[in-house]
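Sample 3 of the quickstart, ligand manganese (II) ion:
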Amino acid sequence: MKTIKSYINDNKDRFLNELIDLLKIPSISADSAYTNAVLETAAVIKTSLENAGCDHVEICETEGFPIVYGEKIIDKSLPTILVYGHYDVQPPDPLNLWNSPPFEPVIQKTDLHPEGAIFARGACDDKGQMYMHVKAMEYMTSQNELPCNVKFMIEGEEEVGSVNLAKFVAANREKLANDVILISDTGMIAKDVPSITTGLRGLSYVEVEVTGPNRDLHSGLYGGAVANPINVLTKMIASLHDENNHITIPGFYDNVENLSDAERAEMAKAPFSLENYKNALDIDAVYGEAGYTTNERNSIRPTLDVNGIWGGYTGEGAKTVIASQAFAKISMRLVPNQDWETITDLFKAHFESIAPKGVTVKVTPHHGGQGYVTPIDSIGYKAASKAYEATFGKTPIPQRSGGSIPIVSLFEKELKSKTILMGFGLDSDAIHSPNEHFGIWNYLKGIETIPHFYKYFTELKK
Ligand code: BES
Ligand code: MN
Ligand code: MN
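Result:
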């Protein structure tokens, strides 16, 4: 029987090569041109779960991309851990900003990753982090170290809102029954500052369309005499924040939980350097809601951001034109207690109400989801904390994240279990951006830490 450390040492090249092969498949769920690649990825995950020692693995079809489900039930009286992850990735655009092609993984050293990092779309979000669980499973089953039952549920639509997974979970409560859900799809503060994510923000994502005249017009002949949809749209968007960067939608803050001074003081203890933050992004100042720190702005406060805006002429040179239409995609990050459907309705009503005469406005909701907070006195949190202590030699810091995994609150509602977010990515890993990467050190540290969680969770649960 080998320890996890020596097992990793003996197998690390294979662990890396298997991940590299997985990263070569462009499983972009948002783009239908990649449907076959997404399906192929599901098949590869199925095989990898079988090889890792699952007794039963199946591809569960949905109306969209399939869910790969695997399990190993060793004793019904022992606890069951449900591992969730996703095998789909974000589109890699803009391609010209990548230093190497997004689906041709390369290993390169960086300042933060002197041991090397794998550069590829999905390296950190979430193929690399999901695959840590597959390799940890391989260790536990091959070395007779699996202390409890395990179920895997790896989906292919996380990056497009998990709509079909939500239906699957609601329809398969028995099959998915568990004592704790374990996810690695978030980050940690730094390699020497381990942290456990205790909160996720919710999300409401909408698309807006402003239509003016029935056709594009000469901007000299008509300019100044009719509403220009792009001018109007940008003015409407600008009005959504006031001078303190508060969001102006009536009712938007109604259910926002206000943290006590003590809780805010606790949060402020997490190591953070504003100088490093600004330097890493090449900005001379941060920007945000008055009265809150950077870490508060990006975790416990809700936001509204334009994610894309278009209309009119954007080709080479100049074309004098007033476009008939203008468009934008807008996301609102929400905090626990804000209901995403209510917020979507509030946005729609407000945005329509501020449209001036001379244009029509259409608001189309996309997907959304609720935020999440998890207590730090649960058995799951304690087991995770002990696991990090075992492999990092330090107690991890609880930290709320600004990102969203909307399915997590649905897990709690449908399966009645808590989720533990053991993320091993760094903020600088550039998830969703060009040159996404995942440190080899982080990848192997994740594989090393996970079996400790299984062991402590099973012990504490007894
Ligand atoms: N893994 C991320 C979410 C994340 C990253 C949370 C880092 C915390 C820290 C996930 O894949 C993601 O990108 N979620 C989307 C929402 C989804 C509905 C498209 C997001 O947060 O934008
Ligand atoms: Mn993810
Ligand atoms: Mn993502």
